[in-house]
Design brief:
ten-stranded mixed sheet, mainly beta, single chain, Immunoglobulin-like, 149 residues
């Protein structure tokens, strides 16, 4: 009986792994930020998020090892005034790609305790509901940069 149970468990684990692997993945690429000025306690991160799986995925949040809170925001224009608003939910359909860029979606880093220096990198992790987290390195460009370095 022990042999049969162990074979069943082994078969189940192999089948589960194969099913999960066939769902594809989500990628985070071209992650970048700008160097911060002395005294700044906020910064932004831009990136490209692509759902290469065959399931809709929902972003739960963003985390960083920096001493800062990371939140997804969107820049919107209301009555001629640009404002940043938190994004409550961000879902990507299979094959969908979303660009976080100046004037649109971005990750807001709030409560920074040190400067971001041009040329350095730091890690972020995008978390999802019912999908593994995705880690990426953010490259810091110049202070006034408007495109990925």
């Amino acid at each position: 009986m022990r042999i049969r149970v162990s074979h069943f468990i082994l078969f189940f684990l192999c089948f589960s792994w194969t099913a999960a692997a066939s769902e594809g993945s989500v990628t985070v690429t071209a992650a970048w930020s700008r160097a911060t000025a002395p005294g700044a306690s906020t910064a932004v991160v831009y990136l490209r998020l692509e759902n290469q799986s065959n399931l809709t995925v929902t972003v739960e949040g963003v985390e960083t090892s920096m001493d800062a809170k990371a939140r997804i925001h969107k820049t919107v224009s209301k009555e001629g005034v640009m404002k940043m608003t938190p994004v409550k939910e961000l879902s990507l359909a299979p094959g969908e790609q979303v660009e976080f860029k100046p004037g649109g979606l971005h990750v807001m880093l709030m409560g920074l305790t040190r400067l971001l220096d041009e040329g350095e990198t730091f890690p972020i992790r995008v978390t999802f509901l019912k999908h593994p987290d995705v880690r990426a390195d953010v490259l810091v460009g110049t202070a006034g940069q408007m495109k990925a370095p």
